[in-house]
Specification:
heterodimer; A: alpha/beta; Rossmann fold; 2 domains; 23 strands; B: globular
């Protein structure tokens, strides 16, 4: 048997109250694409942070090419040939691609040399990227390429990718996979973290499944069904969200000729958007982030201004009505950014329940707040949506992403909205929780609410929406019934692959 | 090696312990400063903190505590509302001056008529004056996106010029033999903010400060508006999503803090100071910034911090006269308090770890 590139054995890392990694043993071979699967909180992040030198294990050893490997910091890990592309990009909008890459390097070469090398690497791996473009003008897919190229310039032996496809169109995903396969042929190993099981089946050679910090099994993804893998992750059988049959009712929300400027310099203005959503209907809006999703949610929630008559609820104009009064009417929203937008990070869950529940849940009377009632509401969200937290007094930022998302969605769903607009309902949420959230949304629609779901996850939109429209560069395509659409058509509706090409093999 | 590790939640205990630690650190480093100036450090610190409360002349100094503490608390309460929402009114000193001018002017306009209505009218006009002065940076921020820190600060200097002009011109005492300064309101019974109980230092300003503390406390913990202020400070986007109108909140916070600063100025000019004069303002508006932070922007904390700062004012005066410490040294001493507080605040959100941290074993 050949020596694996990286061998982890018996890695254990405990945090107060939780064992993040419990005796994890795992081998990654040279040129292997290895998937790391698990629910939120299963210990995937901790494990890759250990490999990348961000966290020191309590016990256990790592070996690279048979020699001991214990990086004290990410710099040491990079020195040993480990590169990592994070789920959240750490790029400066106002700087160019080359400047951003230089910032992450130990000893950046002169700009001209660097620009040449960026061009070389980008052409070799089919990741077209001009070094002097400003990052703020790039699409999410292009930003990811900056991060990937930043890693490739260090000539890594192991590339860790955390949820790389969550921001890409189907065509962009295909091209990313070509790049990864080419890297694999050159002998680079890839540790691939994703929730998208079909992708893992298409791409990966081996998969390790973590549950509760333990390695609960490995499999060859090609020979294992997505359902089997999902069940290994959650340790039980999965329920597929089911939409109850329902008839479309009256028009609840209608948007006509909506144009609105973006509040941010790197945002996307909305251009002439029109659609309507009926009671009991789910409208899915797909598209790559940065194409006007935040702005659309802002206009619908009442945070951003829009012209008279552009947005109306049951025929009544909403344009002059603020977020709180809209909630009073029954128009609710849940933004994408959990920390800082949907919830205040340093405030308790009770306070965050108060944030949007004040009017509709009657948590305030003539301006005086009823905290007992707010705590009750927070507790109800925690119980009904299975939010894992010691209690409602905990700060929102102490929750994991998936748990906070359940809280945020639960908070709006439990207020019995008549119209609910959600941006990225299951972003970064594990399979079981995502299924719960989708089911809750479908139940809401079945109860007669009109839903607008903005998401980058096309599988999700196909699963829960009745009609689908794509948001591209601030324009919305005409909504089409979801049944009868295939992935290729949707990809084209989304504006194709943004000028990407397949790797030169 | 010492490292800082982010806490999952801000520590409640630390957030209350840091003001005390800051006071201790200030005493130590202030002592070092006084020693460097050739004074006995322990005696200096005792003079500042002990003498006013328990010294030979404490019967005289103790009422001063309320007289100096009241304007500090009144102003700091208003500032804290804005600071909690991330709205930085640095110009309370100017609003204090304008409040005093408006309050005194309203009283002097009726001189020498005696009426019970004059004093309430002065209160209203002082409050209104401070409020409008603070709304200037507010409107400029809302309409044109100007920085309220700069505008409110610059308006302090405008207010100081206005004060000089008033003491030399419009409000000058016609019977004052040409000396700058207005009539002394202490000699105009209807306008005099006299001690309510003789020998205690208790005047209407102290009452107003207590009412402001209670109001602010209830508002911040139980009222929608206080919640809006807190959410805006913690996460402005979340506040907007929750339905807070940022422009209205800016105007409210600046207006309210100006109103309270104006009130403080009015009570001061009608009481302890007595008259509008060129050097009427002594920096309460700036010191109140320290008080607000030292009190954790919490109304009850601000009461304690206000009394503490009043103590350093009084003790500082004693140290100046008895030990010959320069006035600037006392100001440095007060400044240190804010400096240490802000530095130690790191401990609320981070914990200190010694050693190289987590090492694989």
């Amino acid at each position: 048997m050949t020596t694996p590139l990286l061998a982890l054995s018996g890695l254990t890392k405990a945090y107060p109250g939780v064992i993040a990694n419990d005796d994890v043993t795992l081998d990654i071979g040279v040129g292997e694409i290895h998937a790391l699967l698990g629910e939120n909180g299963a210990g995937k992040s901790t494990l890759v942070k250990i490999i990348y030198g961000l966290v020191k294990p309590d016990s256990g050893v790592m070996q690279m090419h048979g020699t001991a490997f214990a990086p004290v910091d990410p710099r040491a890990a990079r020195g040993a040939g480990v590169g990592m592309v994070f789920q959240h990009f750490s790029l400066f909008d106002a700087l160019s691609v080359a400047e951003n890459i230089a910032l992450g390097m130990e000893a950046p070469p002169p700009m001209a040399t660097l620009a040449t090398r960026i061009r070389e690497v980008s052409e070799t791996y089919g990741l077209p990227l001009s070094p002097d473009r400003t990052v703020g003008d790039l699409s999410a897919g292009e930003r990811q390429r900056v991060e990937i190229i930043r890693c490739l310039l260090q000539d890594p032996k192991l590339l860790i990718m955390d949820e790389p496809t969550s921001v890409l169109t189907p065509q962009e995903v295909d091209i990313l996979f070509e790049t990864l396969r080419k890297l694999k042929e050159e002998g680079t190993a890839i540790l691939y973290i994703s929730h998208k099981l079909e992708e893992i089946r298409a791409l990966c050679d081996a998969a390790t499944i973590l549950r509760g910090g333990k390695n609960v099994g490995t499999c060859v993804p090609r020979d294992t069904s997505a359902r089997e893998m999902a069940e290994m992750m959650v340790g039980s059988t999965l329920a597929t969200p089911k939409a109850a049959a329902h008839d479309a009712g009256e028009v609840m929300l209608s948007v006509t000729g909506l144009s609105a400027a973006s509040p941010s310099a790197f945002g996307m203005a909305l251009k002439d958007i029109s659609f309507e959503v009926r009671a009991g209907e789910v409208l899915g809006i797909g598209g790559v982030a940065g194409n006007g999703q935040d702005e659309l949610l802002g206009v619908l929630s009442g945070e951003l201004p829009c012209g008279n008559g552009m947005v109306s609820f049951k025929g009544g104009d909403l344009s002059t009505i603020g977020p709180e009064a809209r909630r009073g009417l029954g128009v609710l929203a849940a933004p994408e950014e959990r920390l800082g937008h949907a919830a205040a990070p340093d405030m308790s869950l009770t306070e965050n329940a108060m944030l949007t529940g004040m009017t509709r849940e009657g948590l305030a009377r003539s301006g005086m707040l009823n905290w007992t009632k707010a705590r009750g509401f927070a507790e109800r969200i925690i119980t009904e949506f299975d939010v894992r937290t010691p209690g409602p007094h905990n700060a929102a930022r102490s929750l994991s992403g998936g748990n906070l998302q359940k809280f945020v969605i639960g908070r709006e769903v439990l207020q019995r909205p008549e119209v609910l607009v959600v941006n990225q309902p299951t972003w970064g949420v594990d399979a079981a929780a995502a299924a719960d959230i989708r089911q809750a949304l479908l139940d809401l629609a079945a109860g007669g609410a009109a839903l607008v779901i903005i998401s980058q996850d096309l599988d999700e939109l196909m699963e829960i929406s009745d009609r689908f429209a794509a948001l591209n560069e601030g324009r919305l395509s005409a909504p089409k019934p979801t049944s009868g659409l295939n992935v290729e058509q949707i990809g084209l509706m989304l504006g194709g692959a943004h000028g990407m090409e397949v790797a030169h093999v | 090696m010492i490292r800082l590790e982010k806490r999952p939640q801000p520590s409640k205990a630390m957030s209350w312990a840091t003001p005390l630690l800051a006071v201790v650190a200030t005493m130590i480093f202030g002592g070092v400063l006084f020693a460097a100036l050739g004074k006995d450090p322990i005696q200096s610190i005792l003079t500042i903190f002990w003498e006013p409360l328990f010294g030979e002349f404490s019967f005289f100094y103790r009422p001063q505590l309320l007289i100096k503490g009241a304007p500090l608390v009144l102003i700091a309460i208003g500032l804290a509302l804005g600071f909690k929402a991330g709205i930085w009114n640095i110009g309370a000193e100017g609003q204090y001056i304008v409040g005093a001018i408006c309050g005194a002017a309203a009283g002097l306009a009726f001189y020498p008529i005696e009426s019970v209505l004059i004093f309430p009218l002065m209160v209203l006009s002082g409050a209104l004056g401070g409020c409008l002065w603070a709304l200037i940076p507010g409107f400029l921020k809302v309409k044109f996106g100007t920085n309220e820190i700069l505008v409110s600060l610059m308006l302090v200097y405008v207010a100081e010029q206005l004060l000089a002009s008033m003491s030399l011109g419009l409000l000058k005492n016609p019977e004052g033999f040409g000396f700058p300064g207005s009539r002394n309101l202490q000699q105009y019974p209807s306008a005099h903010n006299a001690e309510l109980i003789a020998g205690t230092g208790m005047h209407w300003g102290v009452v107003a400060a207590l009412i402001a503390v209670i109001f602010a406390y209830i508002m911040l913990t139980r009222h929608k508006l206080g919640f809006a202020i807190r959410v805006t400070g913690e996460a402005p986007r979340a506040a907007k999503f929750g339905g807070v109108n940022p422009a209205r909140l800016i105007l409210f916070c600046l207006g309210a803090s100006g109103l309270l600063a104006g009130l403080a100025g009015m009570f001061e000019v009608a009481g302890p100071a007595g008259q509008i004069s060129i050097d009427f303002n002594v920096g309460y508006g700036f010191t109140a910034i320290i008080v607000a932070f030292l009190g954790r922007l919490n109304p009850l904390g601000i009461v304690a911090a206000g009394l503490l700062m009043a103590l350093t004012y009084i003790g500082g005066d004693i140290a100046q006269s008895q030990l010959g410490l320069p006035a600037a040294a006392i100001q440095v001493f007060q400044g240190m308090l804010l400096f240490f507080l802000l530095a130690l605040d790191v401990l609320t959100n981070y914990r200190v770890r010694f050693g190289t941290g987590e090492v694989a074993t």
